[in-house]
Amino acid sequence: MPRWLAHVIVVAVFIAAVIVAFSRVHYAWNWMAVWEYRQKFLQGWLVTVALSLASLVMSVFVGAMAAVMLRSRHAIVEAAARVYVEIIRGTPLLVQLLIGFYVVATAIGLENRYIAGVLLLSLFSGAYMAEIFRGGLEAIPRGQIDSARAIGLTPWQALRLVVLPQAVRLVLPPVAGQLVSLVKDSSLLSVIAISEFTLNAQEVNSFTYSTLESYVPLAVGYLLLTLPLSALARWLEHRFRYEAA
Amino acid sequence: MRLIGPFAIAVLFAVAADAAEPLRVGMELSYPPFEMTDTAGKPAGVSVRLAESLAKNLDRELVIENITFDGLIPALKTGKIDCIISSMTATPERAKSIAFSEPYLTTGLALLVSKRSPVVSAADLDVRGRVVAVKKGTTGHHYAASTLKQAGLLVLDKEAAAVMEVTQGRADAFVYDSLSIYRSHLRHRDTTRAVLAPFREESWAIGLRLGDESLRKQINTFLDRFRADGGFERLGDEFLADEKAYFQEHSIPFYLR
Predict the structure, then answer these.
(1) How far, in Å, CA of A164 to CA of B174, rounded?
(2) Tens-of-pLDDT digits for all 245 residues of chain A?
(3) What is the rounded distance in angstroms from the CA atom of residue B114 to the CA atom of residue B165?
(4) B83-108 burial by CB neighbour count: b if 16+ within 10 A, else e?
(5) For residue B36, what are the β-bridge partners?
């Protein structure tokens, strides 16, 4: 059976199951009320797209920096990165957002909640990225670097030509998973009154009392963002596999 | 918190050997002194007392379901609860999807204004550049979303966060009911002003499923009797003595009745 056909069959069965489940709930559907707010859904979705893209780029950057720091020979640098990773991973994002915005951002005079939100989300996701990157770098046997140096490559060349192509391939699946989580975690930014997708759907729910009608589009909207992300990761994986082989 | 989801707390009554279905009352336990939990985590407050009396009156066991405010109406509509006693204003919009009992409390929308803001009354809110904070799903939210076209709107999950937006000067004003505004103002006297005279009067009622006429009749009969017995008077004296005195003194409408 061709791959695509298998996918089509599985998706069709899934959709059928969802339709059966929904038809069994005695629920008075009212799509008209929600349709009136389509502009609000679109605006919220666009805000989520923008927040996600900005946080995506920044969290990869933050994660790479922290990963390098975690491997530093300087005890202070390493300790700083370790404390950052453990504090961020060990506390709820909700608390980080509330304290980060109402206390830290206020203290340093950062007034724009959207910038603060992107920074906080990037710091959050960056901690997870750091450990993924560190794992990828450390999976490359030390002997390869020694060999690369032995044939005359500089440390930078050894990193760029030997370590990174392999490490990138190793970290791509977990990084893709982390980025998908990041997109969904952006919904928590609503606690600091950032008008993103989830908050807008909740508002429509509270105006129309049409809960399922508000949240089904929400699920679809997030899938529209996360599925391309997964596809991109798989494509990159394929490319790097070819290059490394 | 929203992430934990609704959890149920059963309150058992001495009406043993009663086979009647329990009365499931939905409320959000985060609005003292109406809906809150005591130090042991048990539901407490004016609405809890009212629900207890109602259940006793109907000879049914009481189950209190703690549900976030904007989840109450969906819970009622899908049959997860029988009625809502959660300081809910009977608005025309809500009356399209649920029924209401006779009102039992009159209050109104008021403003908590930042000391740094030039806002004096509700009429000053709808100006480009003004920022208005509201709590999601409340009548303040509906008011702001439908009438304020120029001002920026901050929609928050928690009352505390909305108050913080005002005390830190990020928002000009927080639109909420006059009692809550009064209480928040007392806690933040040096950073806020309170505009308590309601610019929109509201009354709270018990929410019911549309068409649930028998329960509506029973509840209205109960409310009449509870009122005649001085039940509201006693609850007001117990939970809201200071506020009652202050509001009466300044002739701001706020009646439990």
Answers:
(1) 52
(2) 888 999 999 999 999 998 898 888 777 778 888 899 999 999 999 999 999 999 999 999 999 999 999 999 999 999 999 999 999 999 999 999 999 999 999 899 998 999 999 999 999 999 999 999 999 999 999 999 999 999 999 999 999 999 998 999 899 999 999 999 999 999 999 999 999 999 999 888 888 877 888 999 999 999 999 999 999 998 988 888 765 54
(3) 9
(4) bbbbbbbbeeebeebbbbbebbbebb
(5) B44
How far does B156 lie from chain A, in Å, by closest CA?
Answer: 5
Q: Please indicate if any CB of chain B lies within 8 Å of the CB of A27.
A: yes
Q: Determine, for residues A191 and B161 on separate chains, whether the beta-carbon distance falls below 8 Å.
A: yes
User: Cα separation of A103 and A109, whole Å?
Assistant: 10
Contacts of residue B115, Cβ cutoff 8 Å, sequence gap at least 6: B169, B190, B191, B192, B193
Cβ-proximal residues to A120 (8 Å cutoff; 6+ apart), any chain? A96, A97, A100, A101
User: How many CA atoms lie within 13 Å of B180's alpha carbon, on the beta-carbon side?
Assistant: 23
Q: State the pTM of this model.
A: 0.78
**Is residue A194 within 8 angstroms of chain B, CB to CB?**
no
